[in-house]
Amino acid sequence: MIKKIKSYLLVLSVLGLVLLPLSTDASLFLGLNSKTNLDVDASLKSESNDKREAVKLEVRNQANASADADKSFKNDDDSKFSNKFESKSSVDVKVNNSNNKDNNRDNEHRRFDWFLKFFNKNKSETKVFGVHVAKSATTTATVNWESNIKTTGKVYFSSNESLLLGTTTASLVADNNLSTKHSVVLSGLSLDTKYYYFIEYKDENNNVLRTKIHKFETKSATEIDASGPKILFVTALKKTGISSNIIWLTNEASNAKVWVSEKSPVDTTASPTASSASVSIFHSLNLSNLATSTKYFYVVSSTDASGNVTLSSENSFETKAN
């Protein structure tokens, strides 16, 4: 802008030189013109400085106002965000607490349901266990098993596994005693033969269940037990005036019988004085209603699972006087 004003003044100066009389002192005019230019320049500079300061002040004011506005906006935004965050955190805490309570409640329900299921299962389900053939001979076998509650049972057996698919073609032996322990003897078996069997059992509520298929083998002719049990020790204990106790051992499981007489030799063809069908290697039989101060003769006997019988030699004892 200053350059434009100077250009205008230069043009006016030229026009003045043309229009003034030739007698006018050119040097004076030129001097006045130079002074005027200096005053104008100073005025313009002063005006320019004032405007520049005004512009700077306005710019500073605008900058400060903008900064204040940004700060205010930021504070408001931070406050809103903080309130929003605090509100969200509060909601999250409430939701988490609610979820934790729900999870704890669900876990308690699951534990209770599992306990009821386990308790009712073990209480209501009928189970059979310990199924095994206790004794397998040449033509017989004894099947034993137990149940967790009282049941009756039937043992279906056959030498052909496919026959067990239909129980009508298989042989069976029933144990109709309502009990938790069962034992049945399978007879009429063949030598050296593999047999298959399963147990059908029924509880007091008439629930009928079956075990899986089991198997066993009968003995061959070469495995036939032809020897009787060995009687290792026989003695009379606890002798009183009217009673005594006869004990002995055997090398294999067998039953027990004893014949007692005041005469010798003892007749073992008569009925035994005392007996026990329990199979064991330790035997103990009590004698009662004896006479005082009397000598008695006795013979014991044991029979194993194969039917082999062993008789002991004759022994004696004497009751006490009253």
Offer a quick outline of the entry.
With 322 residues, the chain is α+β, with helices and mostly antiparallel strands. The chain is 36% helix and 36% strand.
The amount of helix comes to 25-40%
C-alpha Rg (nearest Å): 63 Å
Terminal Cα separation, in Å? 162 Å
Number of domains: 3
Gross morphology: elongated
Oligomer: single chain
Q: How would you spell out the order of helices and strands?
A: HHEEEEEEEEEEEE
Decide which structural class fits the backbone: alpha+beta
What is the helix tally? 2
What does this structure look like?
Mean pLDDT is 75; it is low at 17-38, 84-89 and 119-123. A hairpin with a 4-residue loop joins strand 1 (128-136) and strand 2. It contains 2 helices and 12 strands, in the order H-H-E-E-E-E-E-E-E-E-E-E-E-E. Helix 1 (2-19) packs antiparallel against helix 2. It folds into 3 domains: 1-8 and 28-124; 128-223, Immunoglobulin-like (Sandwich); 231-318, Immunoglobulin-like (Sandwich). The chain is an alpha+beta fold. The protein starts with a helix and ends with a strand. Strands 1, 2, 3, 4, 5 and 6 form a 6-stranded antiparallel sheet that branches. The radius of gyration is 63 Å and the shape is elongated.
Distinctive features:
single chain; 322 residues; alpha+beta; 3 domains; six-stranded antiparallel sheet; 36% helix; 36% strand
Helices and strands in order, then pairings?
Elements: H1 2-19, H2 26-124, E1 128-136, E2 141-158, E3 171-186, E4 194-203, E5 208-210, E6 214-217, E7 231-237, E8 244-261, E9 274-287, E10 295-303, E11 309-311, E12 315-318
Antiparallel strand pairs: 1-2, 2-3, 2-4, 4-5, 4-6, 7-8, 8-9, 8-10, 10-11, 10-12
Helix pairs in contact: 1-2
